[in-house]
């Protein structure tokens, strides 16, 4: 094959503009048997002038010309007829084995689409799967008999075309491509699909014609369409990946049971009706009582509709030597909530203030998260004045990373008025004087493990720590913590929830021990 031939020529027939302009060929190699023949690869941007595949007949899509770089040539035609775009200048060095992160980042800024269609390729190099920034990959009309499992690393793909090959099966790792919107598998030798495709929740177009699919996959696809098929694969997936039981990490092995208590925080977003009908009933069988308050939108609803509103709850062991003294509920803006309760442990003459909160979720609203947290801590300080010398355990979904202003404020006791999380917004007095608090709070996991867990929230598009248990380190010590999810298990799934983890958050749990001497820091709190 002529390595210098330019395949970025105008298409002879009328084409559809599936991506923006710019295709610069460069040399790579097609490994077929023992030969090493140079081939051209067309790279181009994917930004505008797109037509949804779902608007085109399947028979047309499955019979697209198998000439090399078909879509790249269509893009060039579109450009010459007026489509706006810019040519991406790439050189032959693009496929050199560069392992530096900076190289891959620079590539990701230059191009996001790769067209290897119609090249008679029999194998795909694993090096291709290093380009996790790819959003469109065209491997159609080749001679591929299998796709490596490493394709699951291309989790930025929106479009994947494997049509016109000789594929008899798809790797389970294709289920990791959770950003896929168009998956074209026309004219292969597929008889079934992996259940892992049930995780492709964003799929809009799935092309399966020209295969020999067996029932129920074939009939479901023909009669009910793509979404029903994806739902079937998800709901009928066998439980082949078992999570490893989370370890209970003990820091102090010899502790008096009467001197310790455990605190569990879990974001499962249950509604008022579920609190009353399920959680109260079930947890009471284990000796727990609970308090609950719905989010603020419940105020404007009918009694029936109020039962569908979620909120925050605190459950505690109701033993003869314990009683509930008081409760404080702070409803903040944007329908978020914090709940406080004061519990007394009579056997040790100790008192504990427990807090549970759900801070605003939007990553773009860092200012809202910080202000909500500041308001909550101000109210917690006022609540503490009613029960001085109490220990404090503050739990919840703070929707804030360890690098956030919220985390810094809670752990250090202050945040400057110029902190970047305030943005350009004005929150007097916070953005004029800064924010301070006098509660000696520390993250339980940071205290025990010298770092937070790898993640407490795990979804196809986000993995990070959002949930924390804060405690008054002058009054309590951490004697044990529940470990996180095993790295091996997490690498095999695309996120939560699943049959083992019913929420996109994981439960975190800490065992606390009262310190023998009880410091008093209530005198410092005079607000």
Strand-helix topology:
Blueprint: E1 26-32, E2 35-44, H1 58-61, H2 70-80, H3 101-110, E3 113-115, E4 136-138, E5 159-161, E6 182-184, E7 205-207, H4 217-224, H5 226-235, E8 248-250, E9 260-265, H6 272-284, E10 288-294, H7 303-306, E11 311-317, E12 322-332, E13 336-345, E14 350-358, H8 366-386, E15 391-397, H9 405-412, E16 414-415, H10 430-433, E17 435-436, E18 441-443, H11 444-449, E19 457-459, E20 462-464, E21 467-472, E22 476-482, H12 487-491, E23 508-514
Parallel strand pairs: 3-4, 4-5, 5-6, 6-7, 14-15
Antiparallel strand pairs: 1-2, 2-3, 8-22, 9-23, 10-11, 12-13, 13-14, 15-21, 16-17, 18-21, 19-20, 22-23
Helix pairs in contact: 4-5, 8-9
Core attributes:
527 residues; alpha+beta; Leucine-rich repeat, LRR (right-handed beta-alpha superhelix); Deoxyribonuclease I, Chain A; 2 domains; seven-stranded mixed beta sheet; six-stranded mixed beta sheet; 12 helices; 24% strand; elongated
CATH architecture of the largest domain: 4-Layer Sandwich
Low-confidence stretches: 1-51, 83-108, 320-333
Helix content: 10-25%
CATH fold annotation of the largest domain: Deoxyribonuclease I, Chain A
Instruction: State the shape.
Output: elongated
Q: Major sheet, described briefly? A: 7 strands, mixed
CATH superfamily of the largest domain: Endonuclease/exonuclease/phosphatase
Q: Count of helices? A: 12
Domains counted in the coordinates: how many?
A: 2
Just give the CATH class of the largest domain.
Alpha Beta
Can you list the strand order of the major beta sheet? 1-2-3-4-5-6-7
Q: What is the radius of gyration? A: 29 Å
